[in-house]
Amino acid sequence: MNALVGHNNPPGAIELAEPTIEALSQFLKDFPVIANEEEAREAKPHLDRMAAALKAIDDERKAKVGPLNEQVTAINAEYHRWHNASSKSGVWDKLLIELRSRLTVFARKLEAERQAAAEAARAAAVEAERKTREAEEREREAAATTAAGVCDVDIAAASREANQAFRDFGKANRAFQLAERERRVRIGGCFGKVSTLRNKEILTVTDWKAAISEMTDDGELPAVISDAILTAARAYRKAFDQLPAGIHVETERTL
Fold first, then answer.
1. Among the residues of 148-222, which ranges form H helices?
2. What is the dihedral of CA 23, 27, 28, 29, to 10 degrees?
3. Is residue 229 a contact partner of residue 235, using CB atoms and an 8 Å limit?
4. How far apart are CA 226 and CA 248, in angstroms?
């Protein structure tokens, strides 16, 4: 208690509990095992005093944080009415959700149109490339025929046709490249980042038995799955006054 000398504040619950804690620590050192009824009776005051000390500590904590928690609750209620980042949306969150939904519908439609346009441009570029190769082949054949002494072959016309086919292919390929770059819908404006469609992962359970079996290690459930099942089992018992099948319960006698 010497730590209290020099200030006028009354000792708090933690300071008041220190002698009780020291006495209990010493008792636990002196009696590693409680072997008889006399030692049990000697342990009982330590049990009662320690329980009372911890209750006093918790009561003091609640008395201090209670008003603060009430203020936090009131502040949260005031702001969460309009905006709540949790699953329960505020009034103004719903307006944003509706706007985002409408923009998403528009962006998906535009994206589908652009993807169709890109596919059409790709097909046109492929066809133009095919025609270019065919025209180039005819040009080579005309040149070879002329070189062989055949005079009625219009090599100039074959060359013009090949050149035109190549220009058409270049134009079609540039159109395809542009359409490919514009596949992604980007909605800009104002001061925020550009809005784009992005993939959002959504997990659903299609076969819970298979999932649990896959995640089971050597026949032992992961603690997080076991805890979730037990939580659901307690809720089931509360609703139907009995535990579901597959849940074992046992009673442990303890102080």
1. 155-181, 208-215
2. 100
3. no
4. 12
Q: Which two tokens stand for residue 91?
A: 């009034």
Give the span between the Cα atoms of 113 and 111, in whole angstroms. Answer: 5
Tokens at 248, concatenated: 């074992």
Give 196's strand partners: 186
Residue recorded with tokens 């058409």: 168
Alpha carbons 177 and 69: distance in angstroms, whole number: 60
Q: What is the largest CA-CA distance in the chain?
A: 129
Domain map (residue ranges) of the chain: 2-80, 108-195, 203-255
Mean pLDDT by runs of 10 across the 255 residues of the chain is 59 96 97 96 97 97 97 96 88 94 96 95 96 92 82 82 94 94 89 90 94 86 93 96 94 91
Q: What pLDDT shows up at residue 207? A: 95
Task: Using alpha carbons, select from 13, 45, 10, 11 the residue that is nearest to residue 27.
Answer: 45
Cα–Cα distance measured from residue 90 to residue 30, given in angstroms and rounded to the nearest whole number: 59
C-alpha 42/C-alpha 65 separation (Å) is 36
d(CA 116, CA 112): 6
Contact (Cβ atoms closer than 8 angstroms) between residue 107 and residue 187: yes
Q: For residue 220, what are the β-bridge partners?
A: 217
Please, what is the angle between helix 155-181 and helix 91-147, to 10°? 170
Whole-Å CA distances, 186 to 8, 53, 106, 182: 67, 63, 11, 9
The span from the CA of 187 to the CA of 113, in Å, is 15
Whole-model pTM: value is: 0.68
